Structure formats: C-alpha cells, structure tokens
Amino acid sequence: MLALAVIISGSQLFAADWSLDKPHSSVNFSVRHMMVATVHGEFTEFDGTASFDPADLSTLKANFTVQVASVTTDDEKRDGHLKSADFFDVEKFPTMTFVSKSAKQTAPGVATLTGDLTIRGVTKEVTFNIEGFNTEITTPWGVKAVGGTASATINRHDFGVSWNKTLDAGGVVVADNVKIQLELELTRPAS
Question: Of the given ranges (15-29, 62-76, 157-171), which has the lowest mean pLDDT?
C-alpha cells in the first residue's frame, strides 16, 4: 500500500508552480449571431495560476479569474448589452472563475481539465480540452516558459445567460452554445 502511495504521488514531485504571462495570453469566446455569422470577443482583464509537470499533464491544477466588465467585441453598443443584466450583469457578478478538480493526459501535450466554472453566480462542472504546455523552454530573460490552449464549449443557459430574441424567419439572435478558447503562456523562475 505504501509503495502505491509513493508511485501515485511521485508525479506530483515534479510539478512546478506557473504564473500567467498576461501580455502573451488571451481569453476569447465566439458565438453564432442571427444564425448567419459568428461573433468573436475577448476578456482583457484576467489572472490565473497553475501547477503541473509539463511531462505529465495529469498533474495539472489551475485557477483562473476573469473580470467580466473587460469584455469586448469591438462594438461598444453590443459590449454594453453584454455587461447588462440581460447577459453577464457585471454590477452583481463582476468575476467569472474556474477552479480545476482533475486532469487526465491522453497523449503528450494533450489532456482534459475538469473543474468548476462560475458565471453569474452559477457553478457548473466544465471540461476543457488542453493542447500544448508540454514543451518547456528557457527564455532569453532567464525564465522557464510553456504555452498552449484550453478550449471548451458551454451552453450559456446553464449559467443563467438566457437573453434572446426570435427572428421573423425563425432562429434566434444569439445561439445557445458558446466556444471558449484560452491562449496561454505560463512562466516560472529558472531553477
């Protein structure tokens, strides 16, 4: 039994704490608009931390916070509507968060990360598909760095984001499913 515990915890020995390199990272989303086009947006204020061994993404643990009022779609009127009670209600719910619970590596640099996503005060379990984060480099500035993506598709209604209008020809203004994609660069001091 002791040997099994040592084997299971052994991979955690190589896990390192990583900080988000915000200037080289982004939090993006996309959703179908009026059934004919896709609107892309991003959140410009966010922070997060992670702990993992790049050689074993099953060790991945992460926490992430997004300042919802930082949403932008390059359309001031739409951004104002997204911040209103019809969508994110930033006055009542200024942040959205993700706290991981488990990770599973399926191939080198490919994993799933499951955790609790909270939007508008509603928490649901969501699984992100992880790609990358397995090639660690030393930058010219002497820090270690990794990079990759985390993506998921959520149903916005699950989080109480339910505003919509029906179109005369059928369909709706905003689709139910929203694609989330995080492009992340993480750093840590060189040992």
Answer: 157-171
pLDDT at residue 174, rounded to an integer: 61
Kindly report the length of the chain: 191
Q: Which residues lie below 8 Å from residue 16, measured CB to CB, with a gap of 6+?
A: 51, 52, 53, 144, 188
| Interatomic CA distance for residues 47 and 41, integer angstroms | 17
Residues 6+ positions from 48 with CB-CB distance below 8 Å? 20, 62, 63, 64, 65, 98, 184
pTM, whole model, 2 decimals? Answer: 0.85
113 part of a folded domain: yes
CATH number, domain with residue 177? 2.40.128.110
Q: Contact, 182 vs 25, CB < 8 A?
A: yes
Distance of CA 118 to the CA centre of its chain: 11
pLDDT score at 159: 84
The Cα-based distances of 144 to 17, 27, 78 in angstroms read 11, 22, 39
3-state helix, strand, coil in the chain (%, to 5): 15, 55, 25
| Residue 46, domain member (yes or no) | yes
